[in-house]
Amino acid sequence: MTYHFPYYPVKTREMHNHHMDSTIWNDFRFRDDDIVISTYAKSGTTWTQQIVSQLIFAGAEGLDVAAMSPWLDLRVPARAEKLAALEAQTHRRFIKTHLPVDALVFSPRARYIYIGRDGRDVAWSMYNHHATANDFWYEVLNDTPGRVGPAIGRPPASVRDYFTDWMRRDGHPFWPYWDNIRTWWAVRHLPNVHLTHFEALKADMPGEIRKIADFLGIRIDPANWDAILEHCSFDYMKAHAPSVVPLGGAFWEGGAPTFINKGTNGRWQSVLSAAESARYEARALLELGPDCAAWLSTGRRSTSNDNQDASSLKYLTHDRR
């Protein structure tokens, strides 16, 4: 099927749970140069926020990235407070979301960066995130007024059990995984959407940063390049975690460095059996199709078959001329 612009996704649903309230996007006022950084979660969101901050602020030190770049659809802090803080920003805004594309308001005025990561690596990172959460985390998520649905409970002792349940119940106890990947993959050809991948960032961070800068229309001054690379490195972010992690890491045992855990892939290989891993790969193929499943696993996209078909366009129905 031939795809013609200017068709863009339309919001078709709301998502509510212990973490999310997607209705805030209905009240958000876009600017022409806004940047939206999106992932399922635990896929390189914080890393990409750091990269974007360094591009916007030309390699500056001491940036409070967590405050500058809020998770818009997180239920806390209160909607009015969050929207007012974003409205008051005078720099180029960069906002975080974990929503599928049809649960947020998609604007042709904004630029969207989506980061993928193999689901096995996502689940392992999510387990660390969940298992090290402290009582304050549970209190905020479960007891703040406005929660829809059940409270989030504590994880099992075994990461294998956690992964098994996450697979069986599609992202439980957080939110659906496959749907998030599918919706963003479906819009990958839009001129204001850029896909990157955790594995690609690890393999060639300088190259990926340059691609992101080109996508955002940001010229990199060569004099700032070394500082940008240093400030986007894992070691730098770990050492300066309180300025990168939400609330300076107040939600996790051990503080902000716990949130920025290992930054590695493949930890599941020593835990999952070959049969368990094969079941995940078969599920990915079934849910996503061969091209998207291959990209999600490796970070590499096919150039010969990277075309949109009718099924991938079901979310792209609105003409905004």
TrEMBL record:
Alphabetical UniProt keywords:
Transferase
Q: Where is this region: Disordered?
A: 299-321
Signal sequence span per UniProt? none
- InterPro entries under this entry? P-loop_NTPase, Sulfotransferase_dom
Short name of any one Pfam family annotated for the protein: Sulfotransfer_1
Sulfotransferase domain residues are 32-279
Q: Does the keyword Transferase apply?
A: yes
Lineage, top-rank taxon, reads Bacteria
Coiled-coil residues: none
Where along the chain is composition biased (Polar residues)? 299-311
Q: Which family does it belong to?
A: Belongs to the sulfotransferase 1 family.
Its protein name is Sulfotransferase domain-containing protein
Q: Which organism is it from?
A: Albidovulum salinarum
What taxonomic classification does the UniProt entry list for its organism? Bacteria, Pseudomonadati, Pseudomonadota, Alphaproteobacteria, Rhodobacterales
